[in-house]
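Backbone shape codes:
***
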Amino acid sequence: MMRSGRWVDCSWGAQLQSALEQLRPGRVRLEHRARRGCNLPCALPEVVLAQRGSFRAPDLIILDFGQNGWGGSPENLEEFIRVCHLFMPQTLLLIIWNKDMTNLDPSKGDIKNLQSCRALSGHYGIPLLNFQAAMEEYTRQGGNWSQLWPRVLPEEHHPPWRTHAYFTDMLAYWFNRQLGSSESSLQLAPVLRQPDDLNVDQAWIPPLYNVKLEKIQVCLFPLTSHVAREPNGSPTRSPEGRWQLYEDRRDKPGWITMEPSSDKLRFEVNFSRKARVVIQYLRSYANIGTAEVEIEGSWLWQHDGKNLQGGKGRSFRAAAEWGHRISVTQTVMLIGASLPNASWETGAVSFRLADGPKFKVISVISC
């Protein structure tokens, strides 16, 4: 969803809020949870934290990751679906699919994503709206494709306000068609569930892709959370002040340092007997460096080797630069090696910029 720029008030989210307000005055509230550079795996920890800080469950969650990315695997979407059901079992999900508009023709990845969205939609009974199909139908009836999405170059990922209006019309049409049947049938009220473990969903629909929540890259029952968007009691600076919490771009806060030094940014955390740490940081293609990550405590830590350097231990390197010409939030999980008679303990996660001009930490969550 477009969150900045001169057309911010005309994004499809803002327009949909206006349409729903006209349909149900004073009875509808739409929360914007999307942010640029945050794909589906990046958004999953935020779902867990959001429901923990809420007093009621939402009636509907709209998933639109056409431009930020579905995560590269059908399991990512199924993980999201099952986590939502774990905490919000009566909340309706709505999937919106659109191809990556940096290219004119759908890529193999686009086709794969659509196939998995359709499969999961049918498996779980989740509505699926296909904006790509709507654009194709529009052009078949004589419409101009460029009016729907005129910007298809890599540097112009976001369309103008007019495209957001078409998007809103599609959603409003769906709401109008579904509203009558929803009101005429018995609907269970949304429930915000706070389970102690994963056993509450054992009797639910079996997973399509053999997803196991106990193995996903997120803390489902976090003990400590340091999140830049809602820092609460988290540190706002490092001891020497080289790290500061601020927004280097609108609506994109983080703990940021701009020069290598010995100054460390330190987060105190708590661990359970099955210790996990989830770290999120900025990855980009320019003006970004590598940080040393250290975890204090008696645990030894291991990771999948995809994004961190360093074997089993307490010290790792996180290289934030990559070759893709996009900036995204990278999510990494570290798993603590079992200790004899382990129960819980306190520790800390620290960051130091070792090489390069910049590093940005977005969140640190432990369980």
Observations:
- The longest helix spans residues 161-184.
- The domain at 224-366 is CATH 2.60.120.260 (Jelly Rolls).
- The chain has seven helices and 15 strands.
